[in-house]
Amino acid sequence: MTLQQIFSLVFLSLINFGNPHSSKPSTAVRKAPNVILLIGDGMGHSQLSSALYYGQEEPNYLRFPVVGLSRTSSSSHKITDSAAGATAFSCGVKTYNGAIGMGPDSTALPTILETLEDQSWQSGLIATSSITHATPASFYGHVKLRKQEFDLAEQLITSRVDFFAGGGKRFFFRRLDEKNLMPAIESNNLLLDTLKLSAKNWQEGKRYGYLLAEDGLPPVEEGRGDFLREATNLALDYFKSQGAPFFLVVEGSQIDWGGHANEGDYLVSEMLDFDRAIGAALDFAEKDGNTLVIVTADHECGGFALKASTKKVPFRGEVNDYDSLRYSFGTDGHTGAMVPVLAYGPQAEKFGGIYQNNTIYEKIISAIKGL
Ligand code: MG
Ligand code: ZN
Predict the structure, then answer these.
(1) Which-ligand-closest: CA of 298?
(2) Which of 23, 280, 306, 342 is the most exposed place for a label (fewest CB within 10 A)?
């Protein structure tokens, strides 16, 4: 028996939620599934649909067998922001707009990553925004207001997140309080790379972080390259090397930014980029056989629509040309529309139906426990 096998056996007994003394005829021990949660920030149905018309190939998300709808309102507003939206997933409660990892009364709540880390899970976060931005931060941080990104940088260092990749160097190294975070980075076993995404000789007990821009990463239209898909594959490679089950969050952060800017090409290129990361997650899950993949959004942004172009017709003037699309926006902010949820893997069927965003947390937990 190799050392790796011994570790897996010890691990199985740690994560087996069933009663070890049960006298039931024993079937194979159920191994908790890995989870990959992909969040398209601002990705409503039209954003998702845009990949059908503007991509080179069929979108990867067409491979999902289960579809649901998520109701996105926060505890404070009909229209959520990304902080309350992500905290609903990470902590299982609806909270006020702006809250990171806190309930409506501003008390810190354990995040799903922290709960699983207590049970020796590995965890990872990838975003194309700063890694201290609302969506990723809601999985490790606890602050009253999302703009506390300097505090969130410190909280990420002392968290147990094993792997992260995104932007936000300035919150670590060009701080308003001029604090030097290097001693904390070293004492928390964190190996930081601020130059490029590259595979390491993964060491046991080390955490790996990639901070590749001062703030958000550049838009894919401005040369970000294949960062999101490559970072996803790199994280999966790291987790595989360590053996324990993992929870990975991957955010397509800038679908939302294209919506706020009312720039259709920006939005659609970010959507297509996000779909490539979805493809990487599904490829892994199909091969692995015990990985739950969920794709959803925190809210819609931009009131985005794929409307018809117009054409001039003799004697009728301008009419809709249903064979030609153009972008349309209804707002430069978020909207209250429901958003899609797509699921693949063990217990994916739990994600069918229409439900509140915070029940996604419960569904993930119960899928992990096999309930
Ligand atoms: Mg976000
Ligand atoms: Zn937004």
Answers:
(1) 1
(2) 23
Each residue of 248-297: pLDDT tens digit? 999 999 999 999 999 999 999 999 999 999 999 999 999 999 999 999 99
Q: What is the pLDDT of residues 47-66, one digit of tens each?
A: 999 999 999 999 999 999 99
Q: How many CB atoms lie within 10 A of CB 213?
A: 18
- The SS3 of residue 176 is coil
Taking the domains of the chain in order of start, what are their residue ranges? 33-303+338-369
Q: What percent of the chain has pLDDT over 70?
A: 92
Q: To which residue do tokens 């009728």 refer?
A: 316
C-alpha 252 – ligand 1 centre gap (Å): 7
CA gap 210, 212 in Å, rounded:
6
Chain centroid to CA 68 = 17
Secondary structure of residue 90 in the 3-state scheme: helix
CA of 158 to the centre of ligand 1 (A): 22
pLDDT of residue 27: 56
Rounded to the nearest angstrom, the distance between the alpha carbon of 13 and the centre of ligand 1 is 36
